[in-house]
Design a protein that fits this description.
Oligomer: heterodimer
Strand order of the largest sheet of chain B: 3-4-2-5-1-6-7-8
CATH superfamily of chain B: P-loop containing nucleotide triphosphate hydrolases
CATH class of chain B: Alpha Beta
CATH topology of chain B: Rossmann fold
Largest sheet of chain A: 5 strands, mixed
Order of helices and strands of chain A: HHEEHHHHEEHEHHHHHHHHHHHH
Strand content of chain B: 15-25%
Strand content of chain A: 5-15%
Largest interface: A-B, 40 and 46 residues
CATH topology of the largest domain in chain A: Conserved hypothetical protein from pyrococcus furiosus pfu- 392566-001, ParB domain
Largest sheet of chain B: 8 strands, mixed
Structural class of chain B: alpha/beta
Number of helices of chain B: 13
Shape of chain A: elongated
Structural class of chain A: alpha/beta
Distance between the termini of chain B: 7 Å
Shape of chain B: globular
CATH architecture of the largest domain in chain A: Alpha-Beta Complex
Helix content of chain A: 55-70%
Order of helices and strands of chain B: EHEHHHEEHHEHEHEHHEHHH
Chain lengths: 397, 273
């Protein structure tokens, strides 16, 4: 006999016998569907793979969500990357606690930290707050359990999740019961809008995260299925073909969830989805501003990464990037796209090089570019050009 | 707080496994009928004979890496996750989950004997998993061994199944005394004897009727009596076909008695926090 029949038999029998005992209502204890804070085993909680606000770097994010790393291994890799980066800068650390802010030279150091050091330092800071003051705000998690597998997907509070793991495995002297406070939301009540509001309500959501956020909301209101696994950037890029026309009823909700931005601003963020994958990752890691990135988006895809490297290395502002690009007026023809700004710079170089005075040359290019950083940027590109020319010559020989 | 019922008696064959499995399934059925948000019930088999495991999952070959034994041997930090990983779905109902027993449990008892914290090897990890369930039902082995002690330390309610026979009712007070000893000795304030369940009651036997009346008239035991399950062939046949009594023969007197018992327990659960 099938299980369905068995279940029906059981239900029929229990219904007839228990109607008199329980009446119409089940005791409140079993019917309690109110939102409450529950302590859940840390292992049963998983970050949202499509969460626009990334805590881990892109590479670690994908490794972790493709189950190639456990939470502890992911953190260990993050620590190792941060250690290498810190060592290169001449400030090696053995214990993550050494990353904690130094009261005397706090601001100065923050400016110099690599993105990985910054991520780790923020997490350590949060972990120490949880250790000292307890977890004040519970995570919001969505119950995505299936069968006997209990699983909760984080809707808000991913940083607290990683801080809890950090506290458990990387900060000695802390005894954890391995549980984390969570507000559990049934799967049918999960909301991309609630997550977006939580994300945008805080400072520090970078332009790429905002672009992902805009994409996710647009995809949601257009009924696209949001997967439960790590996605490539192309998933978010689907939103490039979507807009709010035909979905006007969601316009207000989306703009509000994005932090009260205008439609124009929303479209500006959406446009960032056009960045190449490498540029996307670099901009996300370094938390570049939309004001800088939207000039890069207009460039041919193959120069995105080069432009971003210059922006990061030289700390160029949006105004400076605009100046570079507008002065150079890149033509549309494929063959002259990269040469034009360089050609102008080269002409100046050739003119001054006859005097054989490097100081004059430096003064001239600073004068021409109007800014030492921009002059340096062009000089670097010129160097790169010369290097490639030398390689080409070697090959000819 | 999730209520955890341990069906216990140091005498074998009194219906501990039958009662544990059917009570667990009954609670699932009632909660599902009432559209409770969480109708899941966890059945933990702590008896190395693994009868409850066999009838509810159709298997009794669980071993070192997928049974209660695995949980007891796990590292303290990971034991809860190990417990969660070892849980399987019962063939009876998708909302009835089972932590299977294994014959290795006897070996576990020997290995853990004298180990610091051994009696809490089930209670500690279970405390982190139990909140995901509406109720937990534990089937114990027919002895007051370390395994039974672990089960009782994990529990909030002890239910004692007993056959209406003279010698068994004589031993009842000692069973209750033993449970109280565990409660006091380990300071398990939540644990209490919540009920006596008379099983295999044959009304045609004068001795059975007499003892049941004596029980009902007893100043303490009478108050604890929560149900009387009649002797019924359907129970044995249900076991043989690995089905619950409710599914095997819903019209059988034992089915109705178990249904009434479950209804009473659910009402009791809801009333007392």
């Amino acid at each position: 006999m099938s299980k369905i029949n068995d279940t029906e038999k059981l239900d029929a029998l229990l219904a007839s016998v228990t109607d008199d005992m329980l009446g119409d209502d089940l005791p409140q204890y079993f019917n309690d569907n109110h939102i409450k804070v529950e302590r859940i085993l840390l292992e049963m909680v998983r970050p949202d793979p499509v969460q626009p606000r990334r805590v881990l770097s892109e590479q670690l994010h994908h490794k972790f969500h493709n189950n190639r790393l456990t939470p502890t291994q992911a953190l260990r890799e993050l620590v190792q990357v941060a250690q290498v980066s810190a060592r290169q800068q001449g400030r090696p650390f053995a214990n993550v606690l050494e990353l904690l802010p130094n009261a005397e030279s706090d601001q100065e150091i923050t400016d110099k930290l690599s993105p990985e050091e910054n991520i780790l330092r923020d997490l350590v800071n949060l972990a120490i707050t949880i250790r000292d003051d307890g977890q004040v705000n519970p995570l919001t998690v969505v119950d995505i359990s299936q069968g006997v597998t209990r699983l909760y997907r984080i809707e808000t509070g991913e940083r607290r999740y990683w801080a809890a793991w950090l506290l458990r495995n990387f900060i000695s002297g802390y005894e954890s019961d391995g549980m984390i406070d969570c507000i559990v939301i049934p799967a049918e009540r999960a909301s991309a809008f609630r997550q977006a509001k939580e994300n945008t309500a805080r400072k520090g959501l970078n332009a790429i995260a905002m672009a992902r956020q805009a994409a996710l909301l647009l995809l949601t209101v257009h009924g696209c299925e949001i997967p439960n696994e790590a996605v490539t950037n192309d998933f978010y890029r689907q939103a490039l073909e979507l807009d709010l026309r035909g979905k006007r009823e969601f316009t207000e909700s989306i703009l509000s969830a994005m932090g009260g931005v205008t439609k124009q601003r929303l479209n500006q963020y959406k446009k960032l989805l056009l960045l190449s994958d490498e540029a996307w990752e670099l901009a996300d890691r370094h938390g570049l501003d939309e004001g800088v990135l939207h000039y890069v988006v207009d460039l041919p895809t193959e120069v995105h990464i080069e432009m971003l490297q210059q922006i990061i290395q030289l700390g160029l502002s949006g105004r400076q990037v605009k100046a570079i690009l507008h002065q150079t007026k890149i033509p549309n023809e494929e063959d002259t796209k990269l040469e034009s700004p360089l050609a102008k710079f080269t002409r100046t170089a050739i003119k001054t090089i006859e005097k054989q005075n490097p100081v004059d040359f430096a003064h001239t290019i600073v004068k021409q570019q109007g800014d030492i950083h921009m002059a340096l940027a062009y000089l670097n590109r010129f160097e790169d050009f010369i290097k490639k020319a030398r390689e080409a010559l070697t090959n000819i020989r | 707080m999730t209520r955890i019922f341990a069906l216990t008696n140091h005498k074998g064959g009194v219906g501990k496994s039958t009662s544990a499995t059917n009570i667990a399934l009954g609670i699932v059925g009632i909660l599902r009928n009432a559209n409770a948000p969480n109708p899941r019930v966890l059945l933990i088999d702590t008896d190395s004979q693994a009868h409850a495991t066999l009838v509810t999952t159709g298997r009794n070959d669980y071993g070192t890496d997928d049974s209660l034994y695995t949980v007891l041997m796990a590292d303290r930090q990971t034991a809860s996750q190990v417990l969660a990983n070892c849980i399987v779905t019962s063939k009876w109902d998708e909302n009835l989950h089972v932590l299977p027993a294994s014959p290795l449990l006897e070996q576990a008892e020997r290995e853990l004997q004298g180990t610091a914290g051994a009696p809490y090897r089930l209670a500690d990890p279970l405390a982190k998993i139990a909140p995901h369930y509406a109720a937990v039902v534990i089937d114990t082995r027919p002895s007051f061994s370390l395994m039974t002690e672990m089960a009782l330390i994990s529990s909030t309610d002890a239910i004692v199944p007993v056959e209406p026979r003279y010698l068994e009712t004589v031993g009842l007070l000692s069973v209750i005394g033993k449970i109280n000893e565990i409660r006091e000795g380990w300071r398990i304030q939540n644990l209490r004897v919540s009920g006596l369940l008379v099983t295999k009651m044959d009304k045609r036997v004068r001795g059975h009727r007499h003892l049941l009346n004596e029980l009902r008239g007893h100043p303490m035991l009478g108050k604890l009596l929560i149900g009387v399950i009649p002797m019924n062939e359907a129970v044995s046949y249900a076991h043989r076909s690995h089905r619950s009594i409710f599914a095997y023969d819903p019209k059988a007197s034992a089915s109705k008695a178990y249904a009434q018992l479950v209804g009473r327990l659910v009402k009791h659960l809801g009333g007392v926090q």
